[in-house]
Design goal:
CATH topology of one domain: FAD/NAD(P)-binding domain
Number of helices: 11
Strand content: 25-35%
Number of strands: 18
CATH architecture of one domain: 3-Layer(bba) Sandwich
Largest sheet: 8 strands, mixed
Helix content: 25-40%
Distance between the termini: 32 Å
Radius of gyration: 21 Å
Order of helices and strands: EHEEHEEEEHEEEEHEHEEEHEEEHHHHH
């Protein structure tokens, strides 16, 4: 029987598996995909991520951004100092998976999980779609916003489907000259550009080596409307011929009320971690993975059972991330209320964009949930 089975080898799951294995535990990391694999995502994080992942992180960075530009109707509104690292998810996620494997975690790719069964008094069982059952002392659910682990463990909340946003995204290889037309001449390569289409959503465009990553996300429109806005964004950037490559996914906008049950805890999108204003969730997923490993490292090596009561320490450790997420959401709702009240003049819109930009760029400086 394993000490921990981690379901989902994204940033949160691989981080949890790596640090649990480094702590001497018997860990199995499972994912339905085979790596490397693509993932609909902007693929950005702050340099603080290097302190968690390690210097190996720098090997997959495609671009460093020093300036973040905010635009309204494709016209520049404000530039802010930025230190964003930009990368491709297929390379980044493969790196995290390899680091978990090198740390001693067992890895099983191409295995789809159907549910978790916690009915036995002395173990949990991860049930695969083919009927195989894997016994473990504890399960870390890192299987995304539509988490099967959350559902089968009784942690799913009926509002989850209405909280958050829906995003569409493409990542395409383009000639250097075309990339320069979209994101500026070579001397501006260190700028990553966000494109705000009104205030119902945010579109983005990032340069990643020879590729452009373009996307659009919103929490205020139907999926068909998101597709329409994404098509308009691509047309505005002169990339309309790539619209057939758009892929979509749900992005959680709020933590679940509970992220732990007997022998089960959730991390990353499965827990609801992420930024409701921009949809970015990589950094928070990694932090929840680290926090989950720390919590289990204080329970399992001592021979204690990972009951919901003992796992409350993990719930408490998420307090800073929950507060930060709530604050970001409040800023976004304030901006949207200003627009709905008819104050949506260009001056108000510019002020609102600056408010979102300044808050989001400074928020990671204000708080660090990994400092106990």
């Amino acid at each position: 029987m394993h000490d921990v089975v981690v379901v989902g080898a994204g940033p949160g799951g691989s981080t949890a598996a790596r640090h649990l294995a480094l702590g001497g535990m018997d860990v199995l990391l499972i994912d339905r995909a085979r790596f490397p694999r693509d993932k609909p995502c902007g693929g950005i994080a702050t340099p603080g991520i290097v302190s968690i992942v390690g210097e190996e992180m720098l090997s997959v960075v495609e671009q460093r951004s020093e300036v973040c530009r905010f635009l309204l109707d494709m016209e520049p509104v404000a530039d802010y100092p930025d230190r964003t690292l930009i990368f491709k998810r297929r390379r980044f996620d493969k790196l995290l998976l390899d680091l978990a494997r090198e740390s001693g975690a067992g890895v099983r790719e191409g295995a789809a999980v159907a549910a978790v069964d916690t009915s036995a008094p002395d173990r949990a069982e991860v049930v695969l779609e083919d009927g195989e059952r894997i016994a473990t002392r504890c399960v870390v659910g890192a299987d995304g916003a539509c988490s099967r682990i959350a559902r089968s463990a009784g942690l799913w909340h009926p509002l989850r489907g209405r909280q958050g946003s829906f995003a569409m995204h493409i990542e395409v290889e383009v000639p250097r000259e075309r990339a320069d037309e979209v994101l500026g001449p070579p001397e501006e390569l260190r700028r990553s550009s966000y494109f705000f289409v009104g205030l119902h959503g945010v579109g983005w465009a990032f340069r990643k080596g020879g590729a452009l990553n373009v996307g659009m996300g919103t929490g205020c429109m139907a999926r068909s409307d998101v597709r329409s806005w994404a098509d308009r964004l691509l047309e505005g950037l002169g990339l309309g011929r790539y619209r057939d490559r758009l892929r979509g996914q749900h992005i959680p906008g709020a933590f679940l009320p509970r992220v732990t049950a007997d022998r089960v805890l959730l991390v990353g999108d499965a827990a609801g971690a992420g930024n409701p204003a921009t949809g970015c969730g990589i950094e928070d997923a990694i932090k929840t993975g680290m926090l989950a490993a720390r919590a289990l490292g204080r329970i399992l090596p001592r021979g204690l059972e990972p009951t919901a009561g003992r796992l409350r320490a993990y719930e408490r450790s998420l307090g800073t991330l929950r507060h930060l997420q709530s604050s970001r959401g409040a800023v976004l709702r304030l901006v949207q209320d200003v627009q709905r009240c008819g104050w949506g003049t260009r001056d108000w819109m510019r002020l609102s964009l600056r408010m979102i930009a300044r808050f989001d760029l400074e928020s990671y400086v204000w708080t660090d949930p990994l400092r106990f």
